[in-house]
Amino acid sequence: MNLKVDRRLSAAAGLAGVFILCIVMLNISMSLKKELTDLRARQKELLLLRDEFLTLRASVDAIESKKSILKAEGIVQAVDEVFRSLGLNRKVRSVKPTGTKEKKYAQEEEAEIQVEKVTMNELTNVLYRMENSPMVLSIKKTSLKTAFENPSFLNITMTVSLIKPK
C-alpha cells in the first residue's frame, strides 16, 4: 500500500512540478513579448530620429562645403561677385557695410545693398545666386518698390550678411 501511495505522491508531485514549470515559462514568455513590443517601438523612434539626423547632416555638410571654399574677403566683395556673375553690377547703386557681429564660431558681416531698375527675373536670378553661392550669404531683410519711370522695374533694398568661420 505504501508503494501505491508513494507512486501517487510522486506522480502528483511530478504533475505539480510540470504545472509550475508551465506557469514560469508562460510568465517568461509574456515578459519577453512585452519587451519585444517595447523594443519595436524604440526601433521606430530611432528610425525617425535617424532620418531627421541624416537630413540635418546633409544640410550641415552643404554649409560646411560652402565655408571651405570661401573666396570673398568681405561682404562688399561677395556682393560684387554675385552681381558681376549676373552682369548686374551697373544696376547696383550702393553697397554700405553696416557692421560686423562676432558669433561663437563665426563672424557675420552685414551690408545694405540698393539696386535700381531690376526686372523680376533678374531679382530671381540674384536670389538664386546668393543661395547657391560658394559663400554663406544670408538675406536678412528685403524691400521691393516699383520704379518711378517704369512700373515693370523694381528698386530693391536688401540687408545681406556674409558668415565666415573664425
Distinctive features:
166 residues, alpha+beta, Alpha-Beta Plaits, 2 domains, four-stranded antiparallel β-sheet, 3 helices, rod-shaped
Gap from first CA to last CA: 97 Å
CATH class of the largest domain: Alpha Beta
Low-confidence stretches: none
Structural class: alpha+beta
Strand content: 25-35%
Question: Quick gist of this model?
Answer:
The protein is of the alpha+beta class. Helices cover about 55% and strands about 30% of the residues.
Structure description:
The protein contains three helices and four strands; from the N terminus they run H-H-E-E-H-E-E. The protein has 166 residues and is α+β, with helices and mostly antiparallel strands. The protein has two domains: 68 residues; 91 residues, Alpha-Beta Plaits. Strand 1 and strand 2 form a beta hairpin. The chain is rod-shaped.
Topology:
Layout: H1 2-68, H2 75-86, E1 92-102, E2 106-118, H3 120-131, E3 136-146, E4 154-165
Antiparallel strand pairs: 1-2, 2-4, 3-4
